[in-house]
């Protein structure tokens, strides 16, 4: 009788351990990853990433602060899947002045192609250091408004 009691207690304890490991793995079935590349295409921030067949990816962007904060959240699906790498791209329209792109932890991303002041004027907006004249021309063009 005593052996049965210890056997039942051992089975219950083993079940508790297995259940705890399952709950832990379910809660930790994903996380955050870094982007493969970061570039600006005119006023559009383009973030490229890779993911697996059995993963759900959620790129996000926060522009409310002084910097542009980006994150790539990944959640693994249930079951097994074929090991195939897929590529994705997230595109976000960014307006305003030049700002640093970083992850929530503070790590800065090096993005290529941010519009320089000269390119911004080519996009139809005056560069930050360019003054518009009364006749609508930019300072330094023909019909210079110096004076």
Protein described:
The structure is a single chain. By secondary structure, the protein is α+β, with helices and mostly antiparallel strands. Helix content is 22%, strand content 31%. It is built from two helices and seven strands; from the N terminus they run αβββββββα. The strands form two sheets. Strands 1, 4, 5 and 7 form a four-stranded mixed beta sheet that branches. A hairpin with a 2-residue loop joins β2 and β3. The longest helix is centred in the N-terminal third of the chain and has 26 residues, at 2-27. Mean pLDDT is 77; it is low at 117-147.
First-to-last CA distance: 106 Å
Strand content: 25-35%
Reported for the largest beta sheet, the result is: 4 strands, mixed
Globally, the shape reads elongated
Order of helices and strands: HEEEEEEEH
Helix content: 10-25%
Mean pLDDT reading: 77
Oligomer, anyone? single chain
Summed up, the helix count is 2
Assign the structural class, choosing from mainly alpha, mainly beta, alpha/beta, alpha+beta, or little secondary structure: alpha+beta
Based on DSSP secondary structure assignment, what is the total number of beta strands?
7
Low-confidence stretches: 117-147
| Cα radius of gyration in angstroms | 27 Å
């Amino acid at each position: 009788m005593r052996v049965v009691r210890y056997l039942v207690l051992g089975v219950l304890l083993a079940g508790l351990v297995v259940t705890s490991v399952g709950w832990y793995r379910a809660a930790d079935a994903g996380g955050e990853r870094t982007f493969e590349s970061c570039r600006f295409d005119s006023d559009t921030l383009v973030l490229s990433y890779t993911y697996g067949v059995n993963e759900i990816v959620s790129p996000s962007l926060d522009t409310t602060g002084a910097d542009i904060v980006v994150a790539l959240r990944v959640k693994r699906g249930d079951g097994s899947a074929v090991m195939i790498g897929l590529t994705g791209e997230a595109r976000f329209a960014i307006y305003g002045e030049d700002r640093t792109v970083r992850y929530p932890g503070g790590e800065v991303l090096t993005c290529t192609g941010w519009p320089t002041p000269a390119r911004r004027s080519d996009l139809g907006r005056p560069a930050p250091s360019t003054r518009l004249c009364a006749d609508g021309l930019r300072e330094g063009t023909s019909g210079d408004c110096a004076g």
